[in-house]
Amino acid sequence: MTLVAFSRFGRFATGDFAVTGAGGAVEVWDTRTVVRLHTLITGDEQITDVQFDPLSRNILATAGTNGLLRLWDTTTGKPLLSITGRAAGPRMIFAFDPQRRGIVATVGEGGTIRILQTDTGQLVRELHTGLPDITAVAFDYQNEGHLAAGGDGALEVWNSSDGARISVGTQIPGEVTSVRFDPLTRNTLAVAAAGAPPGIWDASNGRPVRFLRSDARSAVTAFNPLIRNSIAVDDGHGRIKIFDASNGIPVHTIDGRYGPVTSLEYAPDGATLAVGARDGVVRLNAVDDW
Prior knowledge:
Helices cover 0% and strands 49% of the residues. It contains no helices and 27 strands.
C-alpha cells in the first residue's frame, strides 16, 4: 500500500513530499527538484498512515503495524518522539489538528480517540465514541477542534476541545474508508464507504446532503484546497474522477490506469494531485481547470 502526503509548506518553502515504500520505509522528496531528501526507516512492517504537521514546518508523523506513532524531523531525517501504550495499536491512524499547534488525534484499537500533545506525547483528552472500531479520522479546517470519525456503517463528529459529541451520521452505507472535511465550505464532510459511491454529509447534523453521481465504489477522496467544491475520488477501476461536490456531477476524468488507488492528496497550492497506488508508484498530476 502506497500512501502520500504533502507538506503544507511544501510548494511555498521546502517542497517536501512523503511517500511510503516497502518494508515500512518512508521517503521524503522535494517536489520542485525531484530530489529524495531522506529515507526514514520506521521499523514497521507496514505503514498505516503518514502526514505532515500542518503547523510545524519540519515535522512528519508516521504510524504502522508495530503500534507506534513516530514524529520525525524532515530536515535531518531523525526521529523526535515515539508514542506507545493506549494511544497506539496495530492498525493505528491519526490526524493533526490544523488550527491548534502540537495537537494530534490518534486511534489505536477500539472506539476511543485520544487527543495528544506532540511535543511530549501527553494525553489531553479521550473521546469515547459509540463506534466499535474506527477506520478513518479527520479534523475540520474551519471549526476549531472539530473532528470526524468513521467506522462500520457509522459516523460521528466531535468537538475535541470540550469532549462534546456534535452529531451522529445517518445513512452510512458500509465501512467508512475515508473522511475528509472541505477546507473551503463549512460543515461539509466527504465520506467514502464500502459498497457505495462517496457522499457529502452535513457535519453539523450528521445528515447526508447528496451522493456523487457515480457507479464507483471509491476508497479515498481529496478536496482541492483552492478550488471550491472540487473533489477527487478514485473510481475503483484505475481512474481518478473529479466531481463538483455542490451537485455531485463529474467534471473531469484522469485516465491513468493506476490499479487499486490507496491514497489521494493535493499539494497545498492545489496545482498538483498525487496518486498513490498499490503497485508502489506515485504519480503527480498537474491540475488544469477542472
